[in-house]
Amino acid sequence: MRAYGFTEIGGPDAQAFLDVPEPRPGPDELVVRVRAAGVNPGDWRLREGAYGHSGPTVLGREVAGTVVALGPGVSQFAVGDEVFGGCPGMVGGWAEQALTIASFTARRPDGVPPEVAAALPVSAATAFDALNRFDLPAGSTVLVNGAGGGVGIPAVQLAAARGLRVIGVASPAKRELVAGFGAIPVAYGAGVEDRVRAAAPDGIDAVFDMVGGDALRAIAALLEDRSRLTSVADKPLAVELGGFELVRDRSTVVLTELARLVAAGKLDPHVTDVRPLSDAQAALALVEGGHATGKVVLIP
Predict the structure, then answer these.
(1) Crossing angle between the packed helical segments 192-199 and 213-220, to the nearest 10 degrees
(2) Range of the domain at 45
(3) What's the pTM value of the predicted model, to 2 decimals?
(4) Torsion of CA 32, 35, 40, 44, to 10 degrees
């Protein structure tokens, strides 16, 4: 079976098309014929060794497709179901067929195209989990640091759908994009603290960070209650500053709700670049270089 991944831990030169066996499902697993697969920063981090996998490994952490086989004990799905979900470990989704985790897979509604559904399990679901953890009442103010990125865009929309006031810190080039999804845009960089204070004179109640480093330190200084601070880009620093490390709720319930919000027009993962699997190298380079605006999706 044709797939794309990496042969050993390293840089882009370790990437290659691979000939791998068709996957066989174990407990809590499905085999799907892939119709679309998302591209995420976690893919190049996996290649660099961040998650402990050595090669050869197929890349891709989220897919949409058609169920072709069920693992032992899996009864909530049937062969032929159209689904989307997260992929386990070393058997990624950039392939003709892929494994998904049955307990982190959901049926894809007819009104949600495969390329949109495939963009939900990683970025959008991470944003959903963070907002659940914040548990803010309507009318509260949440600051999304890196609001124009793959996680930031759904975070802005999901927060607005909960009746929260959203301050979206992003590059000036993404000002209209961030505002269009429901946030008050604030330019990042020197002086960001003053710009946030001007946009939210009553203060902020939570910070969801996608940037890390000094940018996170600057924003964290504006938050009185650091228990509502988390970062997907710099988890150790968030904890050091008094925040928490986000624990993901990888469940069918989360994915089903995200698909419902998409179908209801309340969530758009902003898929802007759909490419054939043969273009996987360039697609990952776009994400790794930070040049992607919105989500990139591959079609086998």
Answers:
(1) 40
(2) 2-119+269-299
(3) 0.94
(4) 70
